[in-house]
């Protein structure tokens, strides 16, 4: 929504174009901090209570956006919105990983994609009707309040699935203990790199195709929309497939294909480089949800809340840091550096994944696969 609303917000407060960066920075900071500490918060208060409180917090921040008389008020509220959003993200991912597994996580992230597509349409419709941008934030705030009420009513359903501070301690479940595990650091690095790769492709492909390669703006806009749409569709499709193949059989080919697609974008093969962007979106689709789903088996059930929160924090850092680094390189060379950067980051992603699964297989294990351990956890267990 913010991308559509930003020109109107700028006009309201008389801001320069780059003022958006300040609002995004406060939001990202709040998101990072809340994700990193979410394990402790979830263990203390429970998933249902935390989700309801976080939805109420985001609703309050969005209403504050709509009613703020000054730009700095919005900037301050950005951190509140980030805190609420980060805790919601960590809470939902933790619950789905523990209680439902990879299929539900893929479908949940597909729903995130649908919501990300609907938000701009709502704001576009409001602005197109000649109404204020603030009304769009009021609408979303009311939806968030509805979600908060829903989580209050259903919070008892999350009790059996929520991380317990007592059980976490019994299983070495402190964040400090988690960070002594080399697997945790490999996993954090993988989330940092994957989300940075996903965001880098999404943020820089439009500029690459238009400013460097002369593609029409309308065509490039469709290509970027197709990239995100393919990711959403992919999560629906892979959600149905994930129960029939192991995670390695699914993720390794996706990561290899992503490297090939990045190479095609780098080589600027006519038409194929456009198709390659959509393929990137498709093969990126299962990576984040499946890696989250395997957290209990990979790092231990008692560490799931801490691990998911830290993984999401690493993802936020990667989503900001890697696209920024690509931008710095592009400013010093040219936008054609985007392709080789995506290729190199894709290679690092594959290397980290291979290292992760090798270290997991080196541990003493029962006969069951990691995918079956996650998939067979009954809902609510």
Quick structural overview:
With 381 residues, this protein is mostly helical.
Q: Could you walk me through the main structural features you see in this protein, from its secondary elements to its overall organization?
A:
The chain has 381 residues and is mainly α. The chain folds into 2 domains: 2-159, MFS general substrate transporter like domains (Growth Hormone, Chain: A, Up-down Bundle); 177-362, Growth Hormone, Chain: A. It is 81% helix and 0% strand. It contains 17 helices and no strands. The protein has helices spanning 2-13, 20-45, 47-67, 71-99, 102-128, 133-154, 165-170, 175-178, 182-212, 217-241, 247-267, 272-284, 287-293, 295-299, 304-332, 338-362, 370-375. The longest helix is centred in the middle third of the chain and has 31 residues, at 182-212. The protein is globular and about 60 Å long. The protein starts with a helix and ends in a 6-residue tail after the last helix. Mean pLDDT is 86; it is low at 165-172 and 365-381.
């Amino acid at each position: 929504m913010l991308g559509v609303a930003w020109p109107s917000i700028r006009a309201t407060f008389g801001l320069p174009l780059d003022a958006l960066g300040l609002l995004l920075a406060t939001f990202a900071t709040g998101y990072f901090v809340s994700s990193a500490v979410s394990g402790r918060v979830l263990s203390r208060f429970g998933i249902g209570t935390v989700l309801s409180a976080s939805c109420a917090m985001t609703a309050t921040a969005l209403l504050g956006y709509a009613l703020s008389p000054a730009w700095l008020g919005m900037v301050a509220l950005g951190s509140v919105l980030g805190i609420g959003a980060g805790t919601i993200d960590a809470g939902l991912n933790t619950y789905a990983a523990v209680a439902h597994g990879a299929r539900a996580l893929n479908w949940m992230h597909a729903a995130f994609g649908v919501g990300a597509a609907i938000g701009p349409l709502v704001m576009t419709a409001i602005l197109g009707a000649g109404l204020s941008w603030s009304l769009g934030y009021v609408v979303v705030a009311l939806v968030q309040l509805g979600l908060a009420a829903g989580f209050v009513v259903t919070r008892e359903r999350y009790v059996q699935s929520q991380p317990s501070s007592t059980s976490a301690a019994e299983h070495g479940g402190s964040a400090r203990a988690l960070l002594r595990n080399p697997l945790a650091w490999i996993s954090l690095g993988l989330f940092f790199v994957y989300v940075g790769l996903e965001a880098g492709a999404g943020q820089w492909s439009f500029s690459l195709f238009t400013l460097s390669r002369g593609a029409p703006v309308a065509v490039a806009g469709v290509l970027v929309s197709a990239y995100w749409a393919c990711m959403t569709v992919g999560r629906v499709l892979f959600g149905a497939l994930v129960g029939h193949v192991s995670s390695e059989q699914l993720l390794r080919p996706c990561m290899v294909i992503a490297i090939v697609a990045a190479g095609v974008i780098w080589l600027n093969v006519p038409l194929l480089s456009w198709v390659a962007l959509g393929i990137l979106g498709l093969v990126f689709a299962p990576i984040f949800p499946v890696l989250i789903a395997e957290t209990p088996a990979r790092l231990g059930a008692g560490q799931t809340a801490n691990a998911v929160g830290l993984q999401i924090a690493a993802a936020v850092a990667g989503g900001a840091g890697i696209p920024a680094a690509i931008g710095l390189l592009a400013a010093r060379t040219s936008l054609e550096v985007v392709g080789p950067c995506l290729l190199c980051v894709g290679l690092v992603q594959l290397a980290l994944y291979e290292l992760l699964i090798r270290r997991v297989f080196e541990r003493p294990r029962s006969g069951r696969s990691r995918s079956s351990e996650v998939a067979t956890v009954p809902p609510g267990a």
